[in-house]
Every structure is written in structure tokens, then in C-alpha cells.
């Protein structure tokens, strides 16, 4: 019987998945997704070949499970950070900055991996992004209602923000270069939406801002 990692079966499963995910990330960074096999991932994770097949029947299922965990972890961190913001437009600033920093830390870029997915895999990957888009839409709606952003068409504003964030590649940037890219992109998006900023690039509420009533 395989040795149990941790104090319970659930902890064993959680730690085994973590080892498999870490091995997946490492091998994809070194060799690329297409060239690796589940058997290689199992060996890198230090688990048996039969064990990894018990968790994930094929490589796509493993990739989708990894993406789901990454999305859930990020959304928890984002929710915590957003609760600290005083206004909706400050939430927008937090959202943009965190998204850009998250993209810079991704060794496996979601956009490049979508090319190797099946049609059903594409749908499942898109589901991971849906809560983030919904959160961004809610932030923009509340910022407009509060008078912190002009009341432009939300259906125009939303894809422009998404494109500005996803289109600014930060994956190869580190240190001060990354900080400058994040600040420049955040300022560009906020000013493009009509937000008023102070000298430090932080949103400030217009003096005549009024909350829209239904």
C-alpha cells in the first residue's frame, strides 16, 4: 500500500495534487506542454504512474485541474484585496494591478495553452475566467453609479479594459521594470476611462460626483 502523506487521506490527496501540479509547471517550462507525458509528470512528482492516472485520466484533465486551482487561488486573493478598497474606482485600480502582476508570475501562459485544448477544454477554461469578468463588470457599474467614471456604455468599457490588461505582456519583466509597466498600464486604463488621479496615480473622487439613482 502506498505511503500516506500527511495525517489524513484528504491531506494526502491535497499534497499529492500539489506535487503533480508543481511537476506539470516545471516540465512545461522546461520542455513545453506538447512534448511531455503523464508518465513523465508522475516521475517528476515522485508518484507512481497508476497513481497519476487515478487522479487525472489524461493530460488535458490535468491541465484543466491545474488551471482551476490557479483561478480559485487567485480569485480568493483578489477578493481579499478588493475588500480593502474604499471606492469602486480604487477597486478597479487594485483589480488592474493584481491582474498584471499575476500574469507576470505565470510560467504557463493561459493564452498559449488554449491552443492545445479540445473544444470542451476551451469551454471549461473559459468558465474559469467568467467570475473575473463578472467582478470587473460589477466594479465598473458601481464606479459609474458613484460618479467616479463617466457614464459611458459599459459594453464598450468592459472589453477595452480586458484588452488593455491582457494585451500588456509582463511575463518577462521583473523588479523595477515590472513595477513601471504595471504603473503605466494602470494609469493608462484609468485615465482612458475618465478617472481623476492624484500625483501618485491614485484615483480621487471628483468634487461634484453624485451617486446615480435608479
Mean pLDDT: 84
- Oligomerization: single chain
Distance between the termini: 64 Å
Radius of gyration: 21 Å
* CATH 2nd-level architecture of the largest domain: Orthogonal Bundle
Question: Percent range for helical residues?
Answer: 55-70%
Strand content: under 5%
Tally of separate helices: 9
Order of helices and strands: HHHHHHHHHEE
Low-confidence stretches: none
Strand order of the largest sheet: 1-2
**Number of domain modules:** 2
CATH class of the largest domain: Mainly Alpha
Task: Assign an overall shape.
Answer: elongated
CATH third-level topology of the largest domain: Tetracycline Repressor, domain 2
CATH superfamily of the largest domain: Tetracycline Repressor, domain 2
User: Structural class of the helices, strands and pairings?
Assistant: mainly alpha
How would you sum up the major sheet?
A: 2 strands, antiparallel
DSSP, total strands: 2
Amino acid at each position: 500500500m502506498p505511503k500516506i502523506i500527511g495525517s489524513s487521506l484528504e491531506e494526502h490527496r491535497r499534497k499529492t495534487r500539489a506535487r503533480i501540479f508543481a511537476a506539470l509547471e516545471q516540465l512545461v517550462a522546461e520542455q513545453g506542454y506538447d512534448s511531455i507525458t503523464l508518465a513523465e509528470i508522475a516521475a517528476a512528482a515522485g508518484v507512481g504512474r497508476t497513481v497519476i492516472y487515478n487522479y487525472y485520466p489524461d493530460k488535458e484533465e490535468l491541465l484543466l485541474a491545474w488551471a482551476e486551482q490557479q483561478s480559485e487561488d487567485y480569485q480568493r486573493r483578489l477578493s481579499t484585496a478588493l475588500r480593502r478598497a474604499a471606492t469602486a474606482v480604487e477597486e478597479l485600480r487594485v483589480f488592474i494591478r493584481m491582474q498584471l502582476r499575476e500574469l507576470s508570475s505565470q510560467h504557463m501562459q493561459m493564452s498559449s495553452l488554449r491552443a492545445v485544448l479540445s473544444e470542451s477544454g476551451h469551454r471549461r477554461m473559459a468558465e474559469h475566467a467568467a467570475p473575473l469578468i463578472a467582478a470587473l463588470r460589477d466594479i465598473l457599474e458601481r464606479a459609474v453609479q458613484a460618479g467616479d467614471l463617466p457614464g459611458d456604455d459599459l459594453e464598450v468599457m468592459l472589453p477595452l479594459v480586458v484588452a488593455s490588461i491582457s494585451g500588456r505582456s509582463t511575463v518577462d519583466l521583473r523588479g523595477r521594470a515590472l513595477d513601471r509597466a504595471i504603473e503605466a498600464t494602470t494609469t493608462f486604463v484609468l485615465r482612458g476611462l475618465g478617472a481623476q488621479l492624484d500625483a501618485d496615480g491614485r484615483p480621487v473622487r471628483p468634487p461634484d460626483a453624485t451617486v446615480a439613482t435608479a
